[in-house]
Design a protein that fits this description.
Number of domains: 1
Helix content: 25-40%
Structural class: alpha+beta
Shape: globular
Order of helices and strands: HEEEHEEH
CATH topology: Yope Regulator, Chain: A
Distance between the termini: 34 Å
Largest sheet: 5 strands, antiparallel
Strand content: 15-25%
Number of strands: 5
Number of helices: 3
């Protein structure tokens, strides 16, 4: 199950040429020092958005905040499995998330 979701996550990220997947044990994307998507151990994908956009997408997607390792990850919305049928559409959301983190102040290393 997890390997299947990792394959889907990799396919999704392959549709977004501006960034690439990082992380071996915790697959994720990050830019500007900020992580903006991840795949948890349950095989669920979370994408980061601003507070206003989170609320909008949780309602539109009939979803919740994303959880990883039994903790709510503030800023991340759970991508429902039914949305993974249209990776082109999800890639649009992932690109929106990338633009969001690029608008934030860079995190120092």
């Amino acid at each position: 199950m997890w390997e299947e979701k990792l394959k889907i996550y990799d396919e999704l990220i392959a549709k977004c040429p501006r960034f690439e997947r990082k992380g071996k044990s915790v697959p994720c994307t990050s830019a500007n020092g900020h992580m903006f998507s991840t795949l948890n151990k349950a095989g669920e994908i979370g994408i980061r958005f601003s507070k206003e956009v989170q609320k909008k997408y949780m309602e539109e997607w009939d979803s919740t905040l994303f959880k990883s390792y039994n903790s709510v990850m503030r800023g991340y919305v759970l991508v429902p499995d039914n949305m993974l049928q249209d990776l082109d559409k999800v890639a649009e959301y992932l690109n929106e998330s990338y633009d969001y983190v690029m608008s934030l102040d860079p995190k120092s290393k």
